[in-house]
Amino acid sequence: MVEEIQKKLQNEVDKLRQVQKDYSKAINKRQQLDGQLNENIAVKKELDLLKQDNDVFKLIGPVLVKQDLDEAKQNVTKRMDYITAELKRMEELIATLDKKMDTHREALEKIQQTFQQAQIKASLSQQKA
Q: Where in this chain does the entry annotate a coiled-coil region (predicted)?
């Protein structure tokens, strides 16, 4: 009985650890996306300051290539939209993982209580014998 509960307990701990790893990865990804969004917001602000006759260059590998101002603004806006959508997806994933962690923690608590009760019963039965 006690060994069976120990296996359940270990299994639940392993599940919780995996969810915690996934949660950590999702948090890191969200931070990375936040940084990218902030960079793109800064670029958009700079592009908005330019006049139509100003030159804009895009870095492609080691080469600077001249780019149309409107095209550059559109590219940055599209990138910001994509990053915003990814941020929303990450927030949803983080919320889901948060709920999973809570569920696993609750299950762990129940299993631990059952384990402690089984240990007490086992020790009482050994004392009687």
A: 2-36, 73-121
Cβ atoms of residues 5 and 110 within 8 Å:
no
Exposed/middle/buried for 56, CB within 10 Å: 0-12, 13-18, 19+? middle
Number of structural domains found in the chain: 1
- The residue range of the domain holding 115 is 1-120
Q: Is this prediction's pTM over 0.85?
A: no
Is the Cβ–Cβ distance between 36 and 83 less than 8 Å?
yes
Ramachandran category for residue 113: left, alpha or beta (phi over 0 → left; psi -120 to 50 → alpha): alpha
CATH number for the domain harbouring residue 71: 1.10.287.370
What is the reported pLDDT for 129? Answer: 60
Distance CA 28, CA 26 (A): 5
